[in-house]
Amino acid sequence: MTYSLNEIEALSKRAARGSGLAWGLAEEAAKGTRWLSAFGFQGTDLLADLLEMNDRIPAIDVSPVSLRAAVWHAPARRMSPLIAGASLSDCAVRLMERGSITMENVCVPLLAVPFMGGAALRLGHPVAVEWDGVRVATDGRHLCLHGETDILYTRMTTEMVFSTPAKMTGTKEPVMRASVSPQSWDRLAVFAHRTFAPATDESRLKGAGAGLNDND
Q1: Matching InterPro entries, A to Z (predicted)?
Q2: Prior bond to 126 cis, omega within 30?
Q3: 149 FRET partner, CA 20 to 30 A, in 2, 137, 204, 205?
Q4: Where are the domains positioned within the chain?
Q5: Is residue 79 within 8 Å of residue 65, measured between CB atoms?
Q6: What is the pTM of this model?
Q7: What are the pLDDT digits (tens) for 78-98?
Q8: d(CA 173, CA 144)
């Protein structure tokens, strides 16, 4: 089925929040999923993969230990691309000054790419990343891809190297709707459902219907 980018973003936000992410990071996760979906990637599948992998793991365990280091790593030896990506965007100036930043053991690495767009817009220069033989570059509005497409969907990579300024060749343009499989939608819905408050006797009485007495 196809969904609007607004629909994808709304479900992704609720699913990310349902997985335990703070609202601010859940919003960033949703925007990133929308961004990837706009460029034809399976953004909802990627987010579902990550939420299932890191379900109920404390955020600090999958966050970079130090943003001042040239190589970022997480205590759990598995880094969240959402947390690391948001940190990279905040450290855009540091990336420009150093020329590159390396991240180790990143889960679902493609989910870090949308945050490069934010960094590129801040810097006014394209940002690139390489892992496992693929290279992705963006200026925040367009995307360039080189390498095997299947590798983009890897669930874990040992190393990602981000660099700027980068060259843009063979750009892709975003679209307004994206195809999402029913299975992918359902996987996110499981997490989204956690944000719903459980029904109570009081809520049932205030709602429509027979209340606590059902004489049918």
Answers
A1: DUF3726
A2: no
A3: 2
A4: 2-193
A5: no
A6: 0.88
A7: 999 999 999 999 999 999 999
A8: 9
Tell me the residue type at 207. Answer: G
How confident is the model over 156-173, as pLDDT tens digits?
A: 999 999 999 999 988 788
Q: Which residue has the tokens 């390396």?
A: 102
181-189: long-range contacts, CB 8 A cutoff, minimum separation 24:
181/1, 181/45, 182/1, 184/42, 184/44, 184/45, 184/48, 185/1, 185/3, 185/11, 185/44, 187/44, 187/45, 187/48, 187/52, 188/11, 188/12, 188/15, 188/44, 188/47, 188/48, 188/51, 189/11, 189/15
Tokens 């679209």 correspond to what residue? 175
Both tokens of residue 62?
């999958």
For 191, list phi and psi in degrees, rounded to 5: -70, -40
